[in-house]
Design a protein that fits this description.
α3 links the parallel β10 and β11. The chain is globular. Strands 6-5-4-3-2-1-14 form a seven-stranded mixed sheet. Strands 7-8-9-10-11-12-13 form a seven-stranded mixed sheet. It has a single domain, classed as Metallo-beta-lactamase, Chain A, CATH 3.60.15. The protein is of the alpha/beta class and about 290 residues long. The structure holds zinc ion (2 copies). One zinc ion binds next to loops. The site of one zinc ion (ZN) has 6 residues, from loops.
Length: about 290
Protein backbone atom coordinates (compact mmCIF):
# COMPACT_ATOMS: atom_id res chain seq x y z
CA UNK A 1 0.00 0.00 0.00
CA UNK A 2 1.37 3.41 -0.96
CA UNK A 3 0.07 6.59 0.66
CA UNK A 4 0.66 10.03 -0.87
CA UNK A 5 -0.32 13.29 0.81
CA UNK A 6 -1.67 15.93 -1.60
CA UNK A 7 -3.28 18.25 0.96
CA UNK A 8 -2.75 18.34 4.73
CA UNK A 9 -4.43 21.56 5.95
CA UNK A 10 -7.74 22.03 7.70
CA UNK A 11 -10.29 24.83 7.18
CA UNK A 12 -8.85 26.72 4.22
CA UNK A 13 -5.85 26.63 1.89
CA UNK A 14 -2.87 28.87 2.54
CA UNK A 15 0.08 29.97 0.44
CA UNK A 16 2.84 31.80 2.23
CA UNK A 17 6.53 31.47 2.79
CA UNK A 18 6.14 29.92 6.26
CA UNK A 19 3.97 27.08 4.91
CA UNK A 20 5.90 25.91 1.86
CA UNK A 21 7.52 22.83 3.40
CA UNK A 22 4.36 21.22 4.83
CA UNK A 23 2.16 22.68 2.12
CA UNK A 24 -1.00 24.77 2.07
CA UNK A 25 -3.67 22.68 0.31
CA UNK A 26 -6.67 21.26 2.18
CA UNK A 27 -7.24 17.57 2.84
CA UNK A 28 -6.55 14.95 0.18
CA UNK A 29 -4.71 11.65 0.60
CA UNK A 30 -4.09 9.12 -2.18
CA UNK A 31 -3.86 5.40 -1.53
CA UNK A 32 -2.57 2.99 -4.15
CA UNK A 33 -3.34 -0.59 -3.24
CA UNK A 34 -2.76 -3.17 -5.96
CA UNK A 35 -4.60 -1.92 -9.07
CA UNK A 36 -6.90 0.43 -7.15
CA UNK A 37 -6.57 4.20 -7.06
CA UNK A 38 -8.27 5.50 -3.93
CA UNK A 39 -8.46 9.11 -2.79
CA UNK A 40 -9.60 10.20 0.64
CA UNK A 41 -11.25 13.63 0.71
CA UNK A 42 -11.45 16.25 -2.00
CA UNK A 43 -9.87 19.39 -0.52
CA UNK A 44 -7.76 21.58 -2.79
CA UNK A 45 -5.02 18.94 -2.78
CA UNK A 46 -7.16 16.85 -5.13
CA UNK A 47 -6.39 19.22 -8.00
CA UNK A 48 -2.75 18.13 -8.29
CA UNK A 49 -3.71 14.53 -7.50
CA UNK A 50 -6.16 14.58 -10.41
CA UNK A 51 -3.60 15.90 -12.87
CA UNK A 52 -1.24 13.09 -11.88
CA UNK A 53 -3.97 10.44 -12.26
CA UNK A 54 -4.85 11.71 -15.75
CA UNK A 55 -1.16 11.74 -16.75
CA UNK A 56 -0.89 8.11 -15.58
CA UNK A 57 -3.98 7.12 -17.59
CA UNK A 58 -5.97 6.01 -14.53
CA UNK A 59 -9.59 5.56 -15.59
CA UNK A 60 -11.21 4.26 -12.42
CA UNK A 61 -11.00 6.30 -9.23
CA UNK A 62 -12.57 5.68 -5.82
CA UNK A 63 -13.09 8.73 -3.62
CA UNK A 64 -13.81 8.23 0.08
CA UNK A 65 -15.35 11.37 1.53
CA UNK A 66 -15.14 11.88 5.30
CA UNK A 67 -17.76 14.64 5.27
CA UNK A 68 -18.92 17.62 3.27
CA UNK A 69 -17.28 20.51 5.14
CA UNK A 70 -15.79 22.82 2.59
CA UNK A 71 -12.15 21.95 3.21
CA UNK A 72 -12.97 18.34 2.20
CA UNK A 73 -14.90 19.00 -1.02
CA UNK A 74 -13.75 22.36 -2.39
CA UNK A 75 -11.16 20.89 -4.77
CA UNK A 76 -13.60 18.56 -6.49
CA UNK A 77 -14.83 20.92 -9.27
CA UNK A 78 -11.16 21.27 -10.34
CA UNK A 79 -10.48 17.51 -10.37
CA UNK A 80 -9.10 16.85 -13.87
CA UNK A 81 -10.48 13.27 -14.20
CA UNK A 82 -13.99 14.82 -14.25
CA UNK A 83 -13.16 16.10 -17.75
CA UNK A 84 -12.04 12.70 -19.06
CA UNK A 85 -14.54 10.64 -21.09
CA UNK A 86 -14.31 6.95 -20.25
CA UNK A 87 -13.39 7.64 -16.61
CA UNK A 88 -15.42 6.33 -13.70
CA UNK A 89 -15.34 8.20 -10.39
CA UNK A 90 -17.13 6.43 -7.55
CA UNK A 91 -17.69 8.53 -4.42
CA UNK A 92 -18.40 6.93 -1.03
CA UNK A 93 -19.55 8.63 2.16
CA UNK A 94 -21.76 7.97 5.18
CA UNK A 95 -25.46 8.40 4.50
CA UNK A 96 -26.96 11.66 5.79
CA UNK A 97 -30.54 12.12 6.95
CA UNK A 98 -31.01 15.53 5.30
CA UNK A 99 -29.58 15.30 1.77
CA UNK A 100 -28.04 12.89 -0.70
CA UNK A 101 -24.34 12.58 -1.44
CA UNK A 102 -24.95 13.43 -5.09
CA UNK A 103 -26.92 16.56 -4.13
CA UNK A 104 -23.98 17.84 -2.05
CA UNK A 105 -21.66 17.72 -5.06
CA UNK A 106 -24.32 19.02 -7.47
CA UNK A 107 -25.03 21.94 -5.14
CA UNK A 108 -21.37 22.93 -4.99
CA UNK A 109 -21.26 23.22 -8.80
CA UNK A 110 -24.64 24.86 -9.15
CA UNK A 111 -24.95 28.33 -10.72
CA UNK A 112 -23.90 30.90 -9.46
CA UNK A 113 -21.18 29.08 -7.47
CA UNK A 114 -19.48 27.40 -10.44
CA UNK A 115 -19.87 27.69 -14.22
CA UNK A 116 -20.05 23.96 -15.04
CA UNK A 117 -22.82 21.84 -13.54
CA UNK A 118 -22.05 18.37 -12.22
CA UNK A 119 -24.17 16.69 -14.91
CA UNK A 120 -22.01 18.34 -17.60
CA UNK A 121 -18.90 16.43 -16.53
CA UNK A 122 -17.45 14.01 -19.09
CA UNK A 123 -16.61 11.31 -16.55
CA UNK A 124 -19.20 8.90 -15.20
CA UNK A 125 -19.99 9.58 -11.56
CA UNK A 126 -21.44 7.11 -9.08
CA UNK A 127 -22.38 7.88 -5.49
CA UNK A 128 -22.41 5.23 -2.78
CA UNK A 129 -24.04 6.14 0.54
CA UNK A 130 -22.66 3.97 3.32
CA UNK A 131 -24.43 2.76 6.41
CA UNK A 132 -22.59 3.12 9.72
CA UNK A 133 -20.12 0.23 9.95
CA UNK A 134 -20.64 -0.90 6.35
CA UNK A 135 -17.65 -2.66 4.77
CA UNK A 136 -16.83 -2.02 1.11
CA UNK A 137 -14.52 -4.02 -1.12
CA UNK A 138 -12.46 -1.95 -3.60
CA UNK A 139 -10.36 -4.37 -5.66
CA UNK A 140 -8.50 -6.35 -3.03
CA UNK A 141 -8.77 -3.58 -0.43
CA UNK A 142 -11.35 -3.75 2.35
CA UNK A 143 -12.67 -0.38 3.51
CA UNK A 144 -14.39 0.03 6.88
CA UNK A 145 -16.22 3.21 7.84
CA UNK A 146 -17.44 4.52 11.19
CA UNK A 147 -19.07 7.72 12.37
CA UNK A 148 -16.76 10.18 14.17
CA UNK A 149 -17.54 12.86 16.76
CA UNK A 150 -17.50 16.04 14.67
CA UNK A 151 -20.21 18.49 13.55
CA UNK A 152 -22.26 17.32 10.55
CA UNK A 153 -22.19 13.62 9.59
CA UNK A 154 -18.53 12.67 9.54
CA UNK A 155 -16.91 9.30 8.93
CA UNK A 156 -13.46 7.82 9.42
CA UNK A 157 -12.01 5.01 7.32
CA UNK A 158 -9.87 1.93 7.74
CA UNK A 159 -8.25 0.41 4.65
CA UNK A 160 -6.82 -3.10 4.76
CA UNK A 161 -4.73 -4.47 1.91
CA UNK A 162 -2.49 -7.54 1.93
CA UNK A 163 -2.08 -7.47 5.70
CA UNK A 164 -1.31 -3.74 5.91
CA UNK A 165 -3.67 -1.20 7.42
CA UNK A 166 -4.23 2.54 7.08
CA UNK A 167 -6.61 4.42 9.39
CA UNK A 168 -7.88 7.89 8.43
CA UNK A 169 -9.47 9.88 11.24
CA UNK A 170 -10.11 13.48 10.19
CA UNK A 171 -12.09 15.42 11.38
CA UNK A 172 -12.75 14.29 14.95
CA UNK A 173 -12.59 15.35 18.58
CA UNK A 174 -11.63 11.97 19.98
CA UNK A 175 -12.10 12.39 23.74
CA UNK A 176 -14.59 15.22 24.11
CA UNK A 177 -17.60 14.86 26.41
CA UNK A 178 -19.75 16.81 23.89
CA UNK A 179 -21.82 15.13 21.22
CA UNK A 180 -21.06 17.16 18.12
CA UNK A 181 -22.64 15.44 15.14
CA UNK A 182 -25.99 16.04 13.45
CA UNK A 183 -28.78 13.96 14.93
CA UNK A 184 -26.79 12.83 17.98
CA UNK A 185 -28.27 15.23 20.55
CA UNK A 186 -30.55 13.81 23.23
CA UNK A 187 -31.87 15.06 26.59
CA UNK A 188 -30.96 11.75 28.23
CA UNK A 189 -27.58 11.85 30.00
CA UNK A 190 -27.25 8.07 29.91
CA UNK A 191 -27.96 7.92 26.16
CA UNK A 192 -25.40 10.70 25.65
CA UNK A 193 -22.83 8.62 27.51
CA UNK A 194 -23.66 5.57 25.40
CA UNK A 195 -23.32 7.55 22.19
CA UNK A 196 -19.99 9.09 23.24
CA UNK A 197 -18.68 5.64 24.16
CA UNK A 198 -19.88 4.21 20.83
CA UNK A 199 -18.19 7.00 18.86
CA UNK A 200 -14.88 6.46 20.65
CA UNK A 201 -15.22 2.70 20.23
CA UNK A 202 -15.77 3.23 16.48
CA UNK A 203 -12.65 5.39 16.19
CA UNK A 204 -10.67 2.83 18.19
CA UNK A 205 -11.82 -0.01 15.94
CA UNK A 206 -10.76 1.91 12.84
CA UNK A 207 -7.34 2.56 14.38
CA UNK A 208 -6.79 -0.81 16.04
CA UNK A 209 -3.35 -2.15 15.17
CA UNK A 210 -3.03 0.17 12.15
CA UNK A 211 0.39 0.39 10.53
CA UNK A 212 -0.34 4.07 9.88
CA UNK A 213 -3.02 6.33 11.33
CA UNK A 214 -3.61 9.76 9.78
CA UNK A 215 -5.21 11.77 12.55
CA UNK A 216 -6.74 15.21 12.99
CA UNK A 217 -4.45 17.33 15.19
CA UNK A 218 -5.83 20.75 14.28
CA UNK A 219 -5.47 22.21 17.76
CA UNK A 220 -2.55 22.84 20.05
CA UNK A 221 -3.74 22.47 23.67
CA UNK A 222 -3.74 26.25 24.17
CA UNK A 223 -5.98 26.82 21.12
CA UNK A 224 -8.56 24.13 21.89
CA UNK A 225 -12.20 25.03 21.13
CA UNK A 226 -14.57 22.39 22.57
CA UNK A 227 -17.37 22.87 20.05
CA UNK A 228 -15.32 22.70 16.86
CA UNK A 229 -14.77 18.95 16.76
CA UNK A 230 -11.01 18.69 16.39
CA UNK A 231 -8.28 16.91 18.34
CA UNK A 232 -4.91 17.82 19.81
CA UNK A 233 -1.70 15.84 19.38
CA UNK A 234 -2.07 14.37 22.89
CA UNK A 235 -5.48 12.99 21.87
CA UNK A 236 -3.98 11.31 18.83
CA UNK A 237 -1.13 9.94 20.95
CA UNK A 238 -3.64 8.56 23.43
CA UNK A 239 -5.52 6.80 20.62
CA UNK A 240 -2.24 5.50 19.22
CA UNK A 241 -1.26 4.02 22.59
CA UNK A 242 -4.70 2.55 23.25
CA UNK A 243 -5.04 1.10 19.74
CA UNK A 244 -1.51 -0.19 19.13
CA UNK A 245 -0.79 2.06 16.13
CA UNK A 246 2.66 1.71 14.55
CA UNK A 247 2.99 5.07 12.84
CA UNK A 248 0.99 8.24 13.52
CA UNK A 249 0.76 11.17 11.10
CA UNK A 250 -0.34 14.53 12.50
CA UNK A 251 -2.81 15.87 9.92
CA UNK A 252 -5.36 18.60 9.15
CA UNK A 253 -2.91 21.26 10.34
CA UNK A 254 -4.34 24.57 11.46
CA UNK A 255 -3.90 26.90 8.44
CA UNK A 256 -1.92 29.57 10.28
CA UNK A 257 0.56 27.06 11.73
CA UNK A 258 3.91 27.66 10.05
CA UNK A 259 6.49 25.04 9.11
CA UNK A 260 8.73 25.86 12.08
CA UNK A 261 5.81 25.57 14.48
CA UNK A 262 4.90 22.14 13.07
CA UNK A 263 8.56 21.10 13.48
CA UNK A 264 8.45 22.25 17.12
CA UNK A 265 5.20 20.41 17.80
CA UNK A 266 6.61 17.27 16.26
CA UNK A 267 9.80 17.44 18.34
CA UNK A 268 7.79 18.08 21.51
CA UNK A 269 5.37 15.20 20.99
CA UNK A 270 8.05 12.78 19.79
CA UNK A 271 9.49 12.99 23.30
CA UNK A 272 6.10 11.86 24.64
CA UNK A 273 5.46 9.22 21.98
CA UNK A 274 8.02 6.72 23.26
CA UNK A 275 9.94 4.20 21.24
CA UNK A 276 6.95 2.04 20.18
CA UNK A 277 5.33 4.75 18.07
CA UNK A 278 6.77 6.53 15.06
CA UNK A 279 5.40 10.06 14.96
CA UNK A 280 5.48 12.26 11.86
CA UNK A 281 3.70 15.31 10.51
CA UNK A 282 1.90 14.89 7.20
CA UNK A 283 3.37 17.09 4.47
CA UNK A 284 2.34 17.70 0.90
CA UNK A 285 4.43 15.49 -1.37
CA UNK A 286 5.22 12.97 1.36
CA UNK A 287 4.85 9.38 0.10
CA UNK A 288 4.83 6.45 2.52
CA UNK A 289 4.91 2.73 1.75
CA UNK A 290 3.29 0.30 4.16
ZN1 LIG B 1 -11.74 19.70 8.00
ZN1 LIG C 1 -15.04 19.24 9.38
Amino acid sequence: MQIAFWGVRGSFPVCREQSLRYGGNTSCVEVRAGESAILIDAGTGIRAAGRALVAQGVRQIHLLLSHAHWDHIQGFPFFAPLQQPGTLIRVYSLRRPDTSLEAIFAEQQRHPFFPLALDRMAARLEFVELEEGQVVQIGDTRVYSRRLNHPSVTGGFRLEHQGRTLAYLSDVDLYTKLLLGAGLQTPSASVRQQRLAALLEGASQLASGADLAVCDTFFRPEDYEPSWGHSRPEDALQLARDSGIGQLALFHHEPHRGDDEIDQLLAHYRRQAGSQLELLAAAEGLVLKL
